[in-house]
Structures are given as C-alpha cells and as structure tokens.
Amino acid sequence: MKRLAMIALAAFLLAGCGGKTADYSAYGDRVVCAGEWTYYASYGIYKVHNKSGERERIADDRTARSLHLSGGWLYYEAFDEADKAYDIYRVQTDGSGRQKFNVAAGIEDAIDAGMIGVYRDAVYYFLHLNHNYEAHEYPVWRMRPDGTGREMVMEEADAAYFGGQSILYLHNGDMWLYSPATGERRFILPGFVAGIREYGDSLYFVSDGKIRRANLNTGAADIFPPEAVQRLMIAGGRLWYYESGEVLSSDMDGDDHRRLMGEDELQTGTGMIELLYVAGDWLYYIPTGLDTNLHRIRLDGTGREELVIFMEHRGL
Q: Cα(24)–Cα(11) distance, rounded to whole angstroms?
C-alpha cells in the first residue's frame, strides 16, 4: 500500500535529556534521551547506556520510528506486514508488554495511522482515510495511554507535528499551532517550512536553505547566515545544523559558529546525512548511501562510534 506522502511525526528533543525545547520533525524521530539511557530505532528498538555503552534490544519492529517516552513506555509507529499498514505501538523500556493499538479498527475508511506525540495523559496520532488521500486531509485523534477513550480532536490538518507543549499543523498551505491543554488554535507562519524547532518564545526553521527565526508573539523574523542548511536541531542552548558536508553549531542568535565535524569525519561518501539528532551529550546521524548505520559522536567531538551494524539487521 502506498505510504502517506506526508509523515506526521515528531518528538521532544530536549537539551541534556531535559529542558524546554520542543522539536517538530517531518522525518520520523528515531532517537530519544531519558536519564542515563538513550533509546533509538534502527531495524529494531534499542537502548544504550550513555556512559558505559551497554546496549540492549527491547523490540523487534524493524520499521519503528517516531519514538516518544512517557510513564516508562516507549510509544512509536511501525509497519504491520500482515495488515500492510502503519499502526501505533508501545513497549516498556525494559522490553516487556509490547502492545499494538489497532487505531484504525472500527473507523470507516481508515487505512493507515501515524504517531504524533504524547502530551500529559494522552497519545496523539493521525489517521489516513482512503477517501481523502488526494486532498491530504488527515484527522488528528487522541487516546489514553492504554488505548481507551479515543476521540477526534482535529479534522482539517494537512500535516501535524508535535512539540513538548503543542501541535504544529499545516492547513490550507499555512502553519498553525494547536494547544492540547486549552484547545486554542492560531496562525503561525505562511506556507510550509521544514526542520521546525520551538525554543522559548521563538520558532526556528529552515526555509530555502536558510535558518530563520520567528517570534511566536510578534511574528518578527530573522534570517541567519548559513545558506545551504539541510538539518537543524537545538540542544544545550545552541543551534546544530548540517551544511555543505559539515556539522556546525551556533548560539541562538546565529553567532559564535563552531565546527563539530566535516566530510572526513562523517565518512558518508556522498556528502549527505539523512538524520541529525542531538540527545543528551551526543549527536546521532545516519550517512546517506550504502552504509545506513546509526552513528553517534559526543558534542565535544570525541567518542565517535557506530551503533548498528547494517548487515546484522538484514540477516546477512
């Protein structure tokens, strides 16, 4: 079955496994940090101890992505081979109690689902309905953490991305903000933009290869110097981004530029990476090309390592 053209996913990217930075992503977040552990999805779900490097496989879902941690559970979406569709799952952080929610069951015309995020005592997700595939109108639903109490909260979202406190969604070509706490909806930005990060009272995002900042209260916007940015993250009060084969960082005003690593260290062979994620003191990335392993490096440039062996998880 054709997968959704829009992937409505996101996660809470938080500086040092905690903080107030909300992260919106359209790529499906596969890394989340909590306490002494980092959880990641790459041909299964794993957890690795941030200090010792101890690694444990906690779920076998090879297509798992959009990890969200809440109440000792990891919530995520994965493709079900039997149903030929994506669904919402959860598993405890020790690997027990894996549960599939079957969120499309009993919903007329529903054929697919995607994870949005967890806020307080509710899990948010979208449903793809067969009759409105071409219209790109994906209703947003929520349920209790155990899967009960399902209800639709929004029916007109073209795409939906979740941050720590709010849902950013696309409607009629513009970006809007929805507050799960109050139900308030308000216009944020004209047009669709990528790599959106919320920090304090500002949104940082990538548009036309440039990093831009928009004030959530006044709408005032700034443009920062980089010209060819492909990935953007926020951690430790700094912007981290990928530009022209290098991973760089700056302060939140676009100044104090620092280089973490370049093509020689990344060893992508293509000058491209398909994932850039900062969790705790680590930056995670996946090179684009034949080697699709998950790598990580400390933010001080030390300790680079490969976390997943590509062939191992393909039975080779």
A: 7
Write out pLDDT tens, residues 228-279: 887 788 888 889 888 888 889 999 999 999 998 887 766 655 556 666 777 7
CATH of domain 1-192: 2.120.10.30
Over the stretch 133-188, which tens digit does the pLDDT of each residue have? Answer: 555 567 889 999 999 999 998 877 776 776 657 787 877 778 888 888 888 888 87
The pTM of this model reads 0.75
Report the 3 state secondary structure along 181-243. Answer: CCCCEEEEECCCCEEEEEECCEEEEEECCEEEEEECCCCCEEECCCCCEEEEEEECCEEEEEE
Domain ranges of the chain: 1-192, 219-316
What architecture does CATH give domain 219-316? 6 Propeller (2.120)
Q: If we measure between CA atoms, which residue out of 108, 176, 171, 113 comes closest to residue 143?
A: 113
Q: What are 49's strand-pairing partners? A: 37
Q: Is 302 exposed, middle or buried (0-12, 13-18, 19+ CB in 10 A)?
A: exposed
